[in-house]
Amino acid sequence: MSSGNQKFVERKYNELETSFLIEMRKNMVDKPDSEVFTFLDDNCIPLGPTMRVRDIDMRSRAVANFLQKRGAKPSDRVLLLMNPGRDFITVFSGCLYAGVTAVPCYPPMSEKNVDVLFKIGRDCQSMFVFLSDDFWMMMKDSFTEMEHEFGMGKLTWMHLGEIDFDSFDEP
Questions:
Q1: By CB distance 3.0 to 4.6 Å, which of 15, 47, 53, 73 could disulfide with 27?
Q2: What is the 3-state secondary structure (H, E, C) of the chain?
């Protein structure tokens, strides 16, 4: 990507980030108990609890604090290996709060998808990888091998199970 295009993308991302955070904080004050996300199965039956503004805000700030404690700094990139859902929204929003760039990817389920993941990881130069808890359990014994494939040296691997959502410092 040319320098001019990269600056344009970064500016647009920063505008999106700022708008999202302003709206999140405004909604937290104005209507903290309003429902914002309900995930449905193929038959339109809710999967798990509905997410409220208060839940997203609190959990996202906990993720942001966790990312900062693990060494993520503004403009760092965090590869998100998660399926769509409550956890993804929590971590994606936490990345915005922490000022880091979220790079969402589906967890790879085939050899071809693993190669695509490694290409994305090398291209975005992420030093941080955030996984869903189930994917963490499947992959935790392969992290060293995956780091070699990313070609970036030691990566910081994280998952939601490590976060204390009841006690955290403000990011």
A1: 53
A2: CCHHHHHHHHHHHHHHHHHHHHHHHHHHHHCCCCEEECCECCCCCECCCCEEHHHHHHHHHHHHHHHHHCCCCCCCEEEEECCCCHHHHHHHHHHHHHCCEEEEECCCCCHHHHHHHHHHHHHHCCCEEEECHHHHHHHHHHHHHHHHHHCCCCCEEEEHHHCCCCCCCCC
Residue 92, pLDDT score: 93
Nearby residues of 57 by Cβ (< 8 Å), 6 or more positions away: 24, 25, 27, 28, 32
Tokens of 140: 């935790």
State the Cα–Cα distance between residues 154 and 49, nearest whole angstrom.
36
Do 53 and 32 contact (CB within 8 A), yes or no?
Answer: yes
